[in-house]
Each structure stands twice: as structure tokens, then as C-alpha cells.
What does this fold into?
Amino acid sequence: MLLIDCPHCGPRAEVEFSYGNEAHIARPLEPEALSDEAWADYLFMKTNRKGIMLERWVHSHGCRRWFNVARDTLTYEILAVYPMGAAPPALPERNYL
Amino acid sequence: MRTRYNVFSLARNAMRHHADWPKAWRSPEPKPAYDAVIVGGGGHGLATAYYLAKEHRLTDVAVLERGWLGGGNTGRNTTIVRSNYLWDESAALYEHAMKLWEGLSQDLNYNVMFSQRGVLNLAHNQHDLREVSRRVNANRLNGIDSEFLDAKGVKDYCPVIDLRGGGRYPVLGASLQRRGGTARHDAVAWGYARAADALGVDIIQECPVEGFRISNGRIQGVQTGKGYIEAKKVGLVPAGHASVLAERAGFRLPVTSVPLQALVSEPVKPVIDCVVMSGAVHAYVSQSDKGELVIGAGVDKYVGYGQRGSIPVTEETIAAVCELFPIFRRMRMLRNWGGIVDTCPDASPIIGKTPVEGLYINCGWGTGGFKATPGSGHVFAHTIATDRPHAINAPFGLERFRTGYLIDEHGAAAVAH
It folds into this structure.
């Protein structure tokens, strides 16, 4: 079970949180100009990284606020918690096969 | 051709105290080049190799497995086989598999212990009832056996269910597929491996694929832990690690990898002779031939490759099982584990070509790949051998995410994802 350090409420159990999957996906600025491939990429394609994932979480059963988390998806280690809109922190890359 | 398994070879070997059984398959070193390389030695990969050799006479084939055969999701699932899917496309795919299951032990000369003991899918509220009836009707229109049971029918079919469900999960009815059941998961991998090996396929274990050599948009070969292997065609059957391999080949997939959990109890006398599934409460139960209750749980809500699930998910499933089957409340659980499943946005698999020529992919089976093993291998072998999809897997290509022709099977998948 994850212990997630909510920036507003402190460390809480994962059951209090909901998951928002991959962070930093920019909404297309000109939706009308987008090709079908680009739409498919925006809507469906996932990074789904085995390694460090940048992801969104919301403290649903607490302060109900969103924030970003950098987490290792193999070891489940949480490496950074940072606010929405902020640039991801620089972290050494971890690549697993 | 190696020793056929039959009553005479059994008797002969029994008299020699079973000391002289030949190895079920060779373990050769990889050759420098193959006509086709299959990445992933689980049930689907081995089935693909078998049907490539058997149906398409393509025997210069290697199966590369990073660990040991069937050590991934093939050895971690809850062994349930059924074909009661909603949409025509899925019904065709899973029913194709079901028909192959029905003759599989004879075909492979290996007892996969396929037991058509009947699968119940429970309905707990009015909405479930409507969905279940709709699915029963859709199945029957597609020629798949499926029937609706009311609450009394459920109790008659499976007496250990508490219809009140502890007050939380009342059972109002269920669908029943009598041809559904279970199969011995390890035997499926071993049976396919032995049969493929007998046709000349090289099965290479402990051989992780680290990268691909691609030039002019065409696959040239794979870089492995045992050196570079040249290949005219490569089929990826990587279960939970589809995204990892796709990234190395330079394209993206719409899959999310999450651990799916299962657990088994201590062995007890026969108590439940069918499979009971409840998608709504994330619990499904059957009893193995050894007497253990085999219980399937849900998936974690976040991406994970850890092959172990989150404790709250286990707890939720155990709670639901205790409410539905009060008789199991004092059972002790022996083991729990997780397998990484790659789920698609529409809960249907991806079987087809990739942006790289000569590279094919079979992934995204989510929480229900085991039941499709023979059918999946069969149509994927056709796709690789002829460079175009079989009619059955044509709708399951990667291009459906561009065209929008999704096959939404969230209702038929037993676990919400």
C-alpha cells in the first residue's frame, strides 16, 4: 500500500486518494486542425512507463485537491510530490526491462 | 517425434519407475537467424508458435522467454474459460478459442484438464439483471450457449451461495454458460511448448529481449540477452510488458499496466463444482482439482509493474467472498500474488500489425487473456504467416483507436478496469 504525502494534509494511506494517471498531457490548442492520428495519440496512447511515472493524484477523501507525483512503477517508491502546473523535478532516469 | 502420451507409454514407463520419460521439449541455444521470432513464452506466445508450425508450415521459429515458460500471467491467472462476450467481434474471437479448447487435449496429446463445469456471472441489482439478460440474448444470437437463471435457479445450481449476499450483495439472478469452465494453466503452456517443439520450434528460456534492429521501417532482428538474433518476422506477445517493448520499437500503445491479484485457500473437500463470477463486487471463485478455492480479485487503480497487488484490493475481495459465501468465512488463505495485466481503453485486446513492417503485436488482453489462449495464438499465427489479419482478429487492430471503432467489453470483463 502506498503512503502518499499530500502537500496539504501530510502522509495518508492510498485508499484516501484517486488516481488521475499520466500528468503533463497538454490539451490540443487547435482541435479542429488535428489529424486522426494525433487525436488517437492524445486520447488513447499512454506512456505507461516501467520506471519513473509522472502522474496525477487527487486526495478524494481529504482536501480534494489535485497534485502531481513522480513514482517508480516497479518499486512503488514515491520520489517527488509537486503542485499542478509545476514543471516536473529533475530525477535520474530509471529504465527497467 | 517424441513419445506419445497414451495408456501404453504410461504403463511402460510405470514399470521403469518413471525414470526414462524423455524431456517434453529441447532447450537449444538460439540460432543466429530465424524466419519468425515470437517474444514471450506464455500460453499465447507458445500457441502462436504451435499454430505457425502446424497450420502455416513455418517451422523455423524461435520462442524467446525472459524467465521460464508460463511463469508470467499464464501461471498466475484463475484458469477460467468462457466465451459469453457481448459484441459480435469479441463473441467470434472468444468462441473461436472455446471451440479449440474443446479439442485441445487431443490436438496437443497433452491433458490440459479442460473441465466444462459451467460459469455463473451474478447479477446483484436491477441494472445488473438487465445487463446480464442483454448479454445472454446477444450470446444466443451469436450461437453461444448462454442461459438466464433467476435467484432460485442460481441457488439450485450452486447451493453454497448465500442469495442475500450478507445484505450487501443480494443475488437476483445470473447468466450461465454451461460450456465454460476451467483448464490447468501450466499444462496449457507445457502442452503447447511440447507440441511446438515436436514440430521443430526452438523454445529458448531465460532470454530477455532488450531491443530491436529496425531499418527502413522494417524489422531486421532482435537484440537479446543471448546475443543478436536475425528475424524476418517478429511477433510480440508480452502480456503486461507491451508498452516497454513497444517503446523500444519506437511506437506507443493505448495500454495501462496494472497488477491483478488472485489468491488460493487451503485445500478442502469438493464444495463448489462450478465457477462463480461477480464483476460488480470483484470476486470470482472456483475450486481446483487439488481442493483449493481459487479466488480472483480486482486490479490496482494505479500503474504498477510490481507483480504484487495492493492490500486494500485483497481486503475488498475477501470481504465480498465472505458475504456471498458465508460457508467460506473460516477458510484460511495460503497464498496471494499479482500478475501485470495490460488493459486497453475498451477492455478488448490488440492483435495485429504495428507501424513497423514485419513486427506484429498481440497484447492488451487485460484481465481475461487466459480463456482466449488457443484462439489468440491461432489468429495471431495467421496474421504473422500471411501478413494480414484473420477475419476474426481484423477488428482488433491497433488502428481501431484512430478510426474510433472500439469494441467496448467493459461489461463482459469480470473485473472493472
